[in-house]
């Protein structure tokens, strides 16, 4: 049974709900998507399963600009590098 005190968020890639401990928080810094594994950076965040599949789905669906309320295109390079390091 799930812990009722654990916050739950929705992955912007696959749209499944999961505890925050299973998701990677992503914020906008300097016009690009920055991973926030410690969940401490300021600003609006989006949650993502740290898998290549969820990242690709989020990019394909253009979910990051919507979730982060950004009107400009966002660079995904640092986030992709972080996710690929985690998967390998």
Give a nutshell description of this structure.
With 88 residues, this protein is an alpha+beta fold. It is 28% helix and 24% strand.
Features:
single chain, 88 residues, alpha+beta, Hypothetical Cytosolic Protein, Chain: A, two-stranded antiparallel ribbon, 28% helix, 24% strand, YlxR
Q: What is the overall silhouette?
A: globular
Say how many strands there are.
5
Which CATH class is shown? Answer: Alpha Beta
**How far is the first residue's CA from the last residue's CA?**
30 Å
What is the makeup of the main sheet? 3 strands, antiparallel
Q: Structural class of the secondary elements?
A: alpha+beta
Q: Helical stretch count?
A: 3
SS strand fraction: 15-25%
Low-confidence stretches: none
Q: In which range does the helix fraction lie?
A: 25-40%
Number of domain modules: 1
CATH superfamily: YlxR-like
Radius of gyration: 12 Å
Give the name of the CATH architecture: 2-Layer Sandwich
SSE topology string: EEEEEHHH
Instruction: Fill in the CATH topology.
Output: Hypothetical Cytosolic Protein, Chain: A
Keywords: DNA-binding
Organism: Modestobacter marinus
InterPro entries: YlxR (IPR037465), YlxR-like_sf (IPR035931), YlxR_dom (IPR007393)
GO molecular function: DNA binding
């Amino acid at each position: 049974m799930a812990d009722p005190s654990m916050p739950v968020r929705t992955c912007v890639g696959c749209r499944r709900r999961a505890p925050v401990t299973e998701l990677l928080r992503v914020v906008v810094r300097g016009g690009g998507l920055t991973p926030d594994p410690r969940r401490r950076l300021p600003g609006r965040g989006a949650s993502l399963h740290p898998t290549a599949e969820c990242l690709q789905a989020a990019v394909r669906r253009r979910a990051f600009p919507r979730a982060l309320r950004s009107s400009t295109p966002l660079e995904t390079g640092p986030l992709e590098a972080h996710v690929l390091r985690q998967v390998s």
